[in-house]
Amino acid sequence: MCVHVAQHYKFRTEPSYNEFTAMQTIILNPNAGSMTEERRQLIEERFPDANILESEEKGHTEHLAAEAVRDGAESIIVGGGDGTIGEGINGIAPNFEGITFGILPLGTGNDFARGLKIPLDLASAIDKIEAGNTIPIDLIQLQVDGAPKRYIPNISLGGFDEEATCKLAAHYKNWGPLGYIAVVADGILSTTRYHVELVLPCDTVLSAEVSAIMIANAPYMSGGINIMPGANPADGQFDVILIKAVEATELAMLAPSVAAGTHYETEWVEHIKTTSLTLHSDPAMTFHADGHYQSNTEFSFQIEPSVLNVFASA
């Protein structure tokens, strides 16, 4: 198309092979934003035959998911927020075939679950998994020289360094989506201006001066901000937003449109749908995707269509 060691809650002496729990591993983030002891107990009650593990630090979910694949798990269910979900998917990668992925929304934002129409109520989300319905979804593959391939399930933001992104997350937790937008606006004004060149399919090349770039597989970020209206993680494409370098007076008009989901209509935002993108940036840009940061002058994004089966309804 152009355009640490796991803490085991349950041990099984023999695997269970019923349709629902066959070779099932559950990985929980105990520090997830909405995790409680009551919710942990509910998970144990509803998944009595599953192998339940708990991550111990950032990056550990990825390690546990990779181990589960090697041990023959047929379904891997991750409980946590968007960062934990991203770790789980990257731990499975690239061995997606034969694995069904499940999400228990236990984070603060739960934006990827929201984009897949998975209930944010834990008991209802478990009901969806028990129903056994699955859909194949796309993932965005990110390649940077000198770094392993990463898979982006939801959204990656480019143009904000790690310190600025942590500030965004803190303001979201304290003030919600509107607070997040306010800090994004402040960051756009204070961040580096980037000259970017985008190479798209059919040798299409676009150049622009930007403050930030968003690469999205699904529509929501920061607790329900519909930053990519129309983005669909099962349409074989991904969405790109270029936030052009703007002045303070222009930004004052842009921020409310983001909150309303009408920013595509403004002159300061350019929206692209594509299946691949090579991005050249001067100076080097930092991309953030669910807690993972990469800085470089060149990034390659490629859609992997229908690569992961997820417990969800079409």
Automatic annotation (TrEMBL):
GO molecular function annotations of the record: ATP binding; ATP-dependent diacylglycerol kinase activity
One annotated GO biological process: phospholipid biosynthetic process
PROSITE patterns xref list: DAGK (PS50146)
Superkingdom as given in the UniProt entry: Bacteria
InterPro entries: ATP-NAD_kinase_N, Diacylglycerol/lipid_kinase, Diacylglycerol_kinase_cat_dom, Lipid_Phosphate_FormReg, NAD/diacylglycerol_kinase_sf, YegS/DAGK_C
Alphabetical list of Pfam families matching this protein: DAGK_cat, YegS_C
Assigned keywords, A-Z: ATP-binding, Kinase, Nucleotide-binding, Transferase
Domain (DAGKc) ranges: 19-146
EC number(s) per entry: 2.7.1.107
NCBIfam families, alphabetized: YegS/Rv2252/BmrU family lipid kinase
Name of the protein this chain belongs to: Diacylglycerol kinase
Gene: dagK
